[in-house]
Amino acid sequence: MKTTKSVKWELENGLTAECKITVTRDVDDDIAYADGANIDLGKKTYESIDVATYIDGKYINTDNNLELSDDKRLINTDAVAILANKIGIKIDTYTAIKKAIEEAIAEATTPEYTALKTIEDAKKDAEKRAYNIATERHNNLLKQGLCPKCGTFCYGDCES
Prior knowledge:
Layout: E1 2-10, E2 16-34, E3 37-55, E4 58-63, E5 81-83, E6 87-89, H1 91-108, H2 111-143
């Protein structure tokens, strides 16, 4: 589902700035294209967050998201973030844009997306745990002087 929100504010030089936030959250078919064979791998989630910036109606740039910045250009200013790599924004504008992003995400989220995303996140967590367990086992074997392949003191003989 695609949702769009907009935030307008006045710049210090009198121009009007606008952020158009577009959030897309969909469930798509996951298809692997393998030498002419289209293999259906099931469903997968798709998410996109775009923050397009306009000044007096003129398109400036699109960012993928908005985060607080420690950019040197913000020193000695009231700005807390840089939008479109050009516009320093104050905390109230930053808060309004972040709120609009959160609202757009909430509106774009469907029950089908949420269910599939939960499953995908659980799979990623399980893979991460399995990797950490294997890495820990490997490191423990090496600390003890054991071969990480066979778990004995073979000193590489298990490969011959």
